[in-house]
Amino acid sequence: MDAIEVIRAKRDGGELTAAQIDWVIDAYTRGGVADEQMSALAMAILLNGMNRREIAGWTQAMIRSGERMDWSALDRPTADKHSTGGVGDKITLPLAPLVAACGAYVPQLSGRGLGHTGGTLDKLESIPGWRASLSNDEMLHVLRAAGAVVCAAGSGLAPADKKLYALRDVTGTVESIPLIASSIMSKKIAEGTGSLVLDVKVGSGAFMKTPETARELAETMVALGTDAGVRTVALLTAMDRPLGRAVGNALEVAEAVEVLGGGGPADVVELTVRLAQEMLEAAGVSAGKDPAKALADGSAMDAWRRMIAAQGGDPDALLPRAAETLTVSAPASGVLTRLDAYAVGLAAWRLGAGRARKEDPVSFGAGVTLHAKPGDLVHEGQPLMTLHADETGRFSRALEALEGAYAVGPVDEERLPLVIDRITA
Ligand code: URA
């Protein structure tokens, strides 16, 4: 078989055979198909799509390119959650220990942020001493100690995806539903979780800007998980405005700790509890503890402290703070009708919370704190947001990102409900 034949087949709108898919993924992983050939094929897939059989075959071939983890030695079911990424989306932080406290194990492999959305590992690394890289034995140790582990995926997991994702990032081929779905699901299936809840974000701050495209991505991923024997459910949730009141690494950890302490913003609490219920149901742990009770009685907080400590972190350490702050005030009195998620994410990124290239460092203290959320009444001149940065020179570009991103009016406007839809197989 040769790469040109596979590229031509997809370029001309044809279906790839199972043998073509297996060959091209394997040869690409080993270096037998060149980056420029895989780029051409990724572009042909972006333009012409793949059907359900092709996407399933592509996903399985990427799983087979590396190791598949196995948690069958554990005495309780496993459950995981994946979010397609959003602004202020720190839900994994309270959710993983919460689900552990309610009776399922949570083995979660996470990523770092790139662009305007943050990464869970960057957030957790703002906790002094916390380590993202664990061996499989260390993962098992943390799971047994705390019931949940959140760490970086090792290089042995779906190496074909690692190579292909880096290539897509620089060839304008990220935005393809078959490629996104197979990329996410190859890693989640290889991770070995028995059940999976997908949080597919919708709106300006998300990959998917409309409920229709988000639904297509969710349905594709739910079908892939189900076909691979993983009990999979998806929620479509709002990302037209930021989630919670904190955007930025250490700021988000502090908010997650508030939620684990029984407080925190209503939207973060609501989504954390709902996703926990979905994970426990998918894992078949119906007799476990009620997630709302586990937040109120401190058992989720206990699991968090064990999880952080088992990965070298100090749960009592002071979190890093940015040296400089700037307040943005409400321009008028009325209802805050709009606060655009993408603009706030971009502002946080420009303040130093995110990175432009994979190798860049992040500022742990940088970001945005929101003092009002859409639907809240505000008075002219009251603080609307605080910007946090290590250098004052970063404020002007962040303020530019926020121009036109919020509005105050006499009456509230309609916005997406927090949970828009639920997708099952
Ligand atoms: N996240 C992934 O892991 N892969 C994609 O293709 C997009 C988002």
Defining traits:
single chain; 425 residues; alpha/beta; Transferase, Pyrimidine Nucleoside Phosphorylase, Chain A, domain 3; Pyrimidine Nucleoside Phosphorylase, Chain A, domain 2; 16 helices; 44% helix; binds uracil; Glycosyl_Trfase_fam3_N_dom_sf; PYNP-like_C_sf; Pyrmidine_PPas_bac/euk
3D structure, described in words:
The protein is of the alpha/beta class. The protein folds into three domains: 3-49, Up-down Bundle (Transferase, Pyrimidine Nucleoside Phosphorylase, Chain A, domain 3); 79-153 and 173-316, Nucleoside phosphorylase/phosphoribosyltransferase catalytic domain (Pyrimidine Nucleoside Phosphorylase, Chain A, domain 2, 3-Layer(aba) Sandwich); 324-409, Aldehyde Oxidoreductase, domain 3 (Alpha-Beta Complex), CATH 3.90.1170. The protein has 16 helices and 13 strands. The protein has helices at 3-11, 18-30, 35-48, 52-64, 92-101, 120-124, 136-146, 159-169, 177-190, 211-227, 249-260, 266-283, 291-296, 299-310, 341-353, 395-402; strands spanning 79-83, 106-110, 148-152, 195-202, 231-238, 246-247, 324-329, 334-339, 367-370, 377-378, 383-389, 406-409, 419-423. The longest helix has 18 residues, at 266-283. The mean pLDDT is 96. It binds uracil. Uracil binds at residues 165, 174, 179-180, 183-184. InterPro entries: Glycosyl_Trfase_fam3, Glycosyl_Trfase_fam3_N_dom, Glycosyl_Trfase_fam3_N_dom_sf, Nuc_phospho_transferase, PYNP-like_C_sf, PYNP_C, Pyrmidine_PPas_bac/euk, Pyrmidine_PPase_CS. GO terms for molecular function: 1,4-alpha-oligoglucan phosphorylase activity; thymidine phosphorylase activity.
